Amino acid sequence: MTFEKAYLFSLTKFKLSDARLIDQITKMGFDVEDNNASEISVDITPNRPDLLDIYGFARALRYFMHRSKRFDYKVESKVPALSLSVGQNVKAIRPFISSFVAEGKGISENELKYLVNFSEKLGSIYGRNRKRLAMGLHDFSKIKPPVSYDAFSDLTFIPLNESREMRFSDVLKENEKGISYSHTIRNSEGKTFYPALVDAEGVMSFIPIINSNRTKLSTGAKSIFVDITGTSQYIIEKAADLFASVFIDLGYVISPVEVKYKSKTVMYPQMSSTTITIPASRIEENIGVRIGPNNIVSLANKMGYKAAIVGSNIRFVTPPYRLDIFNEQDVIEDIAIGYGYDYIQPEPIPSVQQGSLEDVTRLTGMLSKLMLGLGFSEMMNSYLTSEETNFDKMLLKHDSDYVKIKFSKEKQLNMLRNWILPQLIYNASLSQHEKLPQKTFELDMVFSLAGGKTLEEYHLAGLIVDAKANFNEIKGIVEALLSTVGLQYSIKEDKMGSFIAGRQAGIYVGNKKVGFFGEIHPQVLSNFGLEEPATAFEINISQAFQQ
Amino acid sequence: MHKYELVLLRLLAKKGVPLRPAEILEVSGINRDSLFWAVENLRSKGYIDVHRSIEKYATITEEGKKYAESKLPELQLLDKLAANGPIEISSMRSSEDQISLKWAKEKGFIAFQNGKMVLTDKGANAQKSGIEEDIVLKELYKNPEKISDFEAKYASSVSQLEKRKLIIIGSKNGISSVEITPKGLRAAEEEQEDEEAINTIDRRIIASRAWEGKKFKPYDISLDVEKQYIAKQNPLREAINRIKEIYLSSGYMEATGPIVLPAFWTFDSLFVPQDHPARDMQDTFYLSNPSSISVDNPRLLKKVKKAQEEAWHIGWSKEIAEQAVLRTQTTSVSIAKLYSAEVLKYNMPIKMFSVGRVFRNENIDPEHLADFYQTDGIVIGRKLTLANLFDSILRIYKPLGVKIRFKPSYFPFVEPGVEVQVYYEPKKKWLELGGAGIIRKEITDIVSSEIKVLAWGLGVERILLAKDPGIKGIYELYNNGIGWLRNKKAVIL
């Protein structure tokens, strides 16, 4: 979120130096991404939709610096400004709606800009691209009751900022918003619905796509109609509370709207709060500091809660605009933030437990040392590779027992490697100007499928690139390695396309093939653009060392 | 002074005039290479002056060498004719035959009669007494530096040999003569010959004690020598090992877990709602083979479903939870351990860690990789605090000597949530190292309402970046440049 600092300070009614502002924002739990003379950009975490606008942010900053005394966000009027009926057809696609009317002295240019921006942000981020939540703002004076919300046939209306009448179906094809959000009104079978708000004069809004031009909100409008629609009753209710709180902060008076479902009638906004009572001692036990009940109440206020001491407990009342307070652990976090993470003294945990490493860590550690002793340097490649590198360039057929990626932003990374050698050859192809011999190894994981189950195993692969590289040398290295670790193995003829026929062998433990070595086929070398002879070995460590 | 230097110096002193290298070679018995070595040494000591000139030299070609060692092909033909009588021309087929035929004819050594060749008188004479061209070739083969002398005396033969490509005449900037200086004259009287010095020491010299009483020829210690390279562990592996060592010494048990897993373990079990943007295909790697992996724990699935639906107010689908993905965080390893029944058998607090790769569907650039390392730590206990969490993390990172700070942040599965930042000196700014916090009760209550779990998941590469000034970016670690690794400075982490 990018905020104009001058406007932000006009809302907080105090000014802060840049350093102080950044410090406060960091302490509140947000990262400042950018800061220049006029604007500051803040990364708002997804749990705080109430801070996706400058008004909510200014409010939080005011509390955090103990400058706000308002803890009640209520709707005084019990008389609905409007009654809105919900039809049966919309049930299948977007069943819920909340709404209210805000009355003021005329909306300013800044307010209009920021409120529209907020509704967009809320719909895209918290509303998951308007799928679960979207909202609209209208000039209430242009609405002619009765108003109803339902899914309709393919009606016509003049969409916002268009000059001609369009059908809903045309909007989905021709209007930018229609194209972007058409997926939100298609059900899982591909059927498209046309949810809309309709008054006596026709379509007010094609939901959640675009409003009508007729009820457009402009600067100076005194009463504003807000509609919020979505797929979750809880979310549209809380979004109404959240949006109404912003109008209350701006000095508007909220009039409720009555929403009539077939079986029930609900008044919005509800401005619902949760009361959470927590023993003061439990708060301290969770954070690990002595704070004291009075200070806890003060810290609660700093975070926007109404709070009171009740015996040995603290009673917290959550502000209606907070959507992220589920239970006491969420309140405790806010108290910790209010207290300041910087002031929490780290405290050791008494423990007598002895540390231990996994067997595989100790095994791979030993093997790595042996490889270094043999003069091989360690490479570390991505586990992701391409079928081209893993199979084609190595002159192997694709088998089906490998882990395949469904969608990758990097097209050439479409599988998890099932052996390491291709990547070692690739590494060497990029370092051909370096002095020979080049000896490299990698000891890490590879992936395959067996009977539908994923096998995650460790392989050790070694590569020698040298003008004099030959079968006997690599055989000597493999034997040195295997005899040093005391493995009972045998060597048999092998026929892999990646190696030269008659210059390769398989390594067997019992009857199981656990590895191979040999002179790499010149066609493989050419496929990687390598122009020096090379020999290599690869051993399945997980299988070779299976007890 | 070396023997050769002294021989040369005394020769020059005795003759008292400048001498040409050819003259010196003739009388001194020093070979050519040693002579030039001695000349250079004496010159650098100021004992002699060296006069230079453009010097001609002959190189004998391979063909020339062959004939120099036997005789010119036309003479070989004459020998055959003298010994065997006339030869059928049609039998002269090889290229060698053609060459000998050509030259014997051109020089008038042979004549043709009835398809046969016979010796002429001139030819018979040449066969008996040899020819100048052949003698010059043989002499030049022995003394190629004498080309100027031969050219002066036998101009036509030399030019003929050159034309036949048996010799090549070149020129170089060479030494025309050397002359002794007054300082050299004194030295010639005063200097003594060095004892024989040992060059390469070998088994024979050591065993026979032949080195006794001898000097070892010294090396020029300032000369550049061939570069040697050290086989090295990858710096990233060193960082991983160091981190494991610190966990181990702080009493943590290592845990490992799968990389290919159902979304359940990387998302649902961590309280991430099913419509969370992080679960998008644009951010997480979903698999087509296997496309789903079942979670065979109905009790756990039921509890997670309930916790998810209560908190997020959207439906929860088992199918979505069972989609196969590459893990996006190592916390999934810790959580799987936490949910496994065995964990409660240990005495509390239980301290566990894991180090492993995590995956993000990214467009790869120097700052963004699709897989990288994360280390995860958890502490399971009955009474644990945020202050304990801070202490635990600091104990892991203090030994690395990096500057760490904590700020509030949000991660779906922890409350309170903490962002751990590391100070990056080269850019003078705080970098995000990872997330931490106390695991939400919705998750831990599934195991036991009595326990609390501290958890952190932090990047490994960034630690290395903050610690090792020789590493300019994360990308360098995965480039696997052999040259880069060979030249990489060792750093104590």
Task: Kindly describe this structure.
Chain A is α+β, with helices and mostly antiparallel strands and 547 residues long. Chain A has 4 domains: 2-64, Phenylalanyl-tRNA Synthetase, Chain B, domain 1 (2-Layer Sandwich); 82-268, Phenylalanyl-trna Synthetase, Chain B, domain 3 (Phenylalanyl-tRNA Synthetase, Chain B, domain 3), CATH 3.50.40.10; 275-342, Phenylalanyl-tRNA Synthetase, Chain B, domain 1, CATH 3.30.56; 359-544, Bira Bifunctional Protein, Domain 2 (BirA Bifunctional Protein, domain 2, 2-Layer Sandwich), CATH 3.30.930. In chain A, helix 1 crosses helix 3 and helix 9 crosses helix 10 (328-339). The radius of gyration of chain A is 33 Å and the shape is elongated. Chain A starts with a strand and ends with a helix. Chain B has 493 residues and is α+β, with helices and mostly antiparallel strands. The longest helix of chain B is centred in the middle third of the chain and has 15 residues, at 235-249. In chain B, the strands form 5 sheets. Chain B has a 7-stranded mixed sheet, sandwiched between helices. In chain B, strands 2-4-3 form a 3-stranded antiparallel sheet. Chain B has a two-stranded antiparallel ribbon with strand order 1-5. Chain B has 4 domains: 3-60 and 171-216, Arc Repressor Mutant, subunit A (Orthogonal Bundle), CATH 1.10.10; 64-154, Arc Repressor Mutant, subunit A, CATH 1.10.10; 236-258 and 329-487, BirA Bifunctional Protein, domain 2 (2-Layer Sandwich); 260-326, no CATH class. Chain B is elongated and about 125 Å long. Chain B contains 22 helices and 17 strands. The model of chain B has no long low-confidence stretch (mean pLDDT 88). Strand 21 (404-405) of chain A pairs antiparallel with strand 10 (287-289) of chain B.
